[in-house]
Design brief:
There is one protein chain. With about 400 residues, this protein is α/β, with parallel strands linked by helices. About 45% of the residues lie in helices and about 15% in strands. The chain has an eight-stranded mixed sheet with strand order 1-11-12-10-2-7-3-4, with helices on both faces. It has a two-stranded antiparallel sheet with strand order 5-6. Strand 5 and strand 6 form a beta hairpin. It is globular, with a radius of gyration of 22 Å.
Length: about 400
């Protein structure tokens, strides 16, 4: 271990991480290199408590269904229902089973019970209503947007027309849709009409923003915007699911991260008067560089949500990449970034990426993990992160 890497590393703490960030940061992305390992959401919880107590943060956004998260946020705000209910209904992708996520909601609600309403914490999901095997029907988002507008504007469509075009949800959510485009309703004549309606409703929402905000509330108008983004995003995603081209998986990836980026930008705007936002997701969704993966015999590349939102808000976005050393028999080779970091004396460390890049030398090797679900650090792009967080063993 070179002296330069030791000098670049500090034992993990919230303060050690934020010391590496620009004071202009409004959105801090904390990545994780793999899902399902509690060490990373536990680290996130520790960081979030520090950010709330010392840095003025008032919200956190997770890689989870943006509509399901409304149930989790209602619990955090002190609403009726149990923590078990919030965990069951407030997360997607199985994340409701995470003890660290459970502790996050418990702590946020307890915090909110002892602070003024203006200082209460908010919980967001920033993913679309998507799972690996498909996407939700657009009914919930589109009808919620319609009902909001219909309460204050004369619309050209009836609710019955909308329901008729949507049809049963099963036509949108068949379990074989991901592998069989013919099962998808995304390019039917009804779906095409729904995309036009969703676009027109979204335009009406924007055009009547002053009236609608005054007639309802800023929070209600923001929620309508969430439904609008989700409805239009889902209909685009379903159209891509119906594509019969062998390249259909690429658009699914960039459409998903596009929805993520739009949601993050909306969260940052909403939270601007209250404080910065912490976002937690896989490194591949938050890094500034192109993400990539091997899937269905193809090498897919797309711009992540972090890259997209970073291009919009500039240096108000900061990204901390997280990685680890050993996982059972999977031990990193000495010449890789993870191998070099494993010699640090800290069980968890925060490292200055620029100094780490210098210490790695001109031709560092990239770790090849035994587990395909883990994305190792790319030596060529480490210096594009604002911080690196290293966990020696998981």
């Amino acid at each position: 271990m070179t002296a330069s890497i030791r000098a670049a590393a500090h034992s993990f703490s919230g303060g050690a991480l934020t010391a590496l960030l620009s004071p202009t940061t409004r959105l801090l992305g904390l990545g994780e290199p793999t899902h399902g390992v509690e060490a990373f959401p536990e680290l996130r919880n520790e960081l979030f408590r520090h950010l709330v107590e010392h840095e003025g943060y008032r919200s956190v956004a997770l890689e989870s269904d943006c509509l399901a998260a409304l149930a989790a946020d209602a619990y955090v705000a002190g609403g009726a229902g149990t923590l078990d209910d919030a965990m069951s209904h407030g997360f997607s992708h199985g994340f409701g089973a995470s003890p660290a996520n459970r502790e996050l909601l418990r702590w946020m609600r307890a915090h909110n019970e002892r602070v003024a309403p203006r200082d209460r914490l908010r919980f967001y999901g920033f993913d679309g209503p998507l799972e690996i095997t498909g996407a939700a029907a657009p009914r919930r988002a589109l009808t919620a947007l319609y009902d909001y507008l219909a309460g204050h504007l004369d619309l050209a469509w009836s609710r019955e027309t909308l329901d008729g075009l949507l049809g049963p949800d099963e036509r949108w959510t068949h379990p074989d849709v991901m592998t069989d485009p013919a099962r998808s309703a995304g390019r039917t004549e009804e779906a095409k009409e729904l995309r036009l309606i969703a676009d027109d409703l979204t335009a009406l929402l924007a055009a009547h923003a002053p009236h609608l905000t005054a007639a309802t509330s800023p929070d209600a108008f923001w929620l309508a915007g969430l439904y609008a983004r989700t409805a239009t995003g889902l209909l685009r995603y379903h159209a891509a699911l119906a594509d019969t081209a062998p390249t259909r998986f690429g658009p699914l990836l960039y459409l998903r991260d596009g929805m993520m980026a739009d949601n993050l930008e909306a969260v940052v705007r909403r939270e601007a008067p209250r404080g910065p936002v912490l976002v937690f997701a896989h490194n591949a969704h938050l890094q500034r560089d192109r993400s990539s993966m091997a899937f269905a015999g193809q090498h897919l590349r797309w711009w992540s949500a972090g890259a997209l939102v970073g291009s919009r808000i500039g240096d108000e976005y900061a990204f901390a990449a997280t990685t680890f050393g050993s996982r059972g028999d999977d031990v990193p080779a000495p010449g890789t970034p993870e191998g070099l970091l494993s010699a640090l004396p800290h069980a968890r460390a925060v490292i200055d990426p620029a100094r780490l890049t210098t210490a790695l030398g001109p031709e560092p090797a990239r770790r090849v993990p035994a587990d395909h679900t883990y994305a190792s650090l790319d030596p060529a792009t480490i210096d594009r992160a604002d911080a690196v967080v290293f966990v020696r063993e998981i």
